[in-house]
């Protein structure tokens, strides 16, 4: 008797091969395993999760920090004395690292869901570790270099919180498929209990998170205040060189209600507009006055300052990546810009009936105008044709003397003080950084007839948030962008948000329960298989043409070899094991010989 082993025909599992091949370089079937992952590989999976979560927070930070990219580059310039867009390499590496770790996370979760053993390839391990260390270094560096910017994360959560909650809930709900596949296994372990407890705890936290979400945009539409006025901060510096007549003209074209500037006093007492301590970044001082590019800007007289070009740097450095969109006429005009004086700004504001708000930098102690800088600025205001009530005076030095000299000036402060003290000083407007502008404080100031101006507001989401908070005006580097925001991006009542919250929670609960029930049913069905079925689970279930040909070749090869009638031929097909008796096979041949 000749017995043959059942033929096993395997399907080509391309998806599974790619899954295990990309993650662990295990492209062959024999390299894969359904055994539990080792503790070493579980540790690497934990590091992968940490890298992914840290990069997720890091990416969110830089996404929201877009409002202050120019501030970041300006800080870099003050340290390195070279202007460069430092956000480009950071964004490129962050996007690459996040995409890479997210892809590996998806592959790892698919491994777990399919019961495949985790075995991260060594190259992936090196890259993941490098990404983790690089991200940690970046977080520590930003915390040291730009610590105040972390406030943008907390503030942005007031705007994105409701949507991030729904996204996180959807992700954790989908993760239930992987958790359920591990929890309902036959083997019981403490790890399963820990996984289930952690998963349920995270779900409960997400279900209750909306109780802690507070956003000014969750309000009745009837309580929404008027649209905040937009002030051109240094003009429109994204469209033209900052602090130039062209920049302020561009801002006026965007319908700003006021113009904001930084004022410095020259060596001969002329107030002019300059943000930096030196003239190096925004002028060609290194060419006209070599050796003096690091000198304080206030130690140049007005004739020297007026001879400098204040526009070529904008075309060269392209600080906002907007030069490519400028017309040829605007480029020629930009190339001929000069440093603007305070008197020129006031004349432009008076001609267009706009207000002016400015900060005044005091010259160094050795400067000849060190004691006269306030009077120099006041003289220019008094000699100009602008109405005093259109000028917002910010400096706190000699405020009483200023009020006595020009009583109609709008007194403004950039210091957050109690309402009583503001009234005592005669301050009618507060200019605050957005990190200091809390909704309850804004309502308190507004109720006491103190206007609040917030800076810098360059992104539509932040403008919408400030609008819902009730601010009266915002200072912006991007008035052309805020001009396109006629309404808050989103606003909903508390009842509407409560309905969305409860509905999403109920849907999540139903899906999670359904996933666990299905996984339990699926596992109970697998337990009813006999060992032979489990061993042959990879065999093709439907007989294909190739399988039939193999079966026929095997049968007739046994006939030609003279197998006796008592021999059995066992051939495995997709429907099971079929026994072919020798007599049944030979009968047609005998009948043919008789004929």
Furnish the topology, listing elements before pairings.
Blueprint: H1 14-24, H2 39-64, H3 69-80, H4 87-114, H5 122-145, H6 151-183, H7 190-208, E1 229-233, H8 245-253, E2 258-265, E3 271-273, H9 285-288, H10 302-306, H11 312-317, H12 328-335, H13 342-352, E4 355-360, H14 373-383, E5 391-393, H15 399-405, E6 410-413, H16 419-425, E7 429-433, H17 439-447, E8 451-455, H18 460-469, E9 473-476, H19 479-482, H20 494-527, H21 531-535, H22 545-560, E10 568-573, E11 576-581, H23 582-594
Parallel strand pairs: 1-2, 1-9, 2-4, 4-5, 5-6, 6-7, 7-8, 8-9
Antiparallel strand pairs: 2-3, 10-11
What does this structure look like?
Pfam families: GDPD (PF03009). Keywords: Cytoplasm, Glycoprotein, Hydrolase, Membrane, Transmembrane, Transmembrane helix. One of its GO terms (molecular function) is glycerophosphodiester phosphodiesterase activity. The chain has about 600 residues and is of the alpha/beta class. It has four domains: about 35-145, no CATH class; about 150-220 and about 495-540; about 230-280 and about 340-480, Phosphatidylinositol (PI) phosphodiesterase (TIM Barrel, Alpha-Beta Barrel), CATH 3.20.20; about 545-595, no CATH class. About 50% of the residues lie in helices and about 10% in strands. The protein has helices at about 15-25, 40-65, 70-80, 85-115, 120-145, 150-185, 190-210, 245-255, 285-290, 300-305, 310-315, 330-335, 340-350, 375-385, 400-405, 420-425, 440-445, 460-470, 480, 495-525, 530-535, 545-560, 580-595, and strands at about 230-235, 260-265, 270-275, 355-360, 390-395, 410-415, 430-435, 450-455, 475, 570-575, 575-580. It has an eight-stranded parallel barrel, surrounded by four helices. Strands 10-11 form a two-stranded antiparallel sheet. Helix 2 packs parallel to helix 5 (about 120-145), helix 4 (about 85-115) packs parallel to helix 6 (about 150-185) and helix 6 runs parallel beside helix 20. The longest helix has about 35 residues, at about 495-525. The radius of gyration is 37 Å and the shape is elongated. It starts with 13 loop residues before the first helix and ends with a helix. Mean pLDDT is about 85; it is low at about 530-560 and about 560-595.
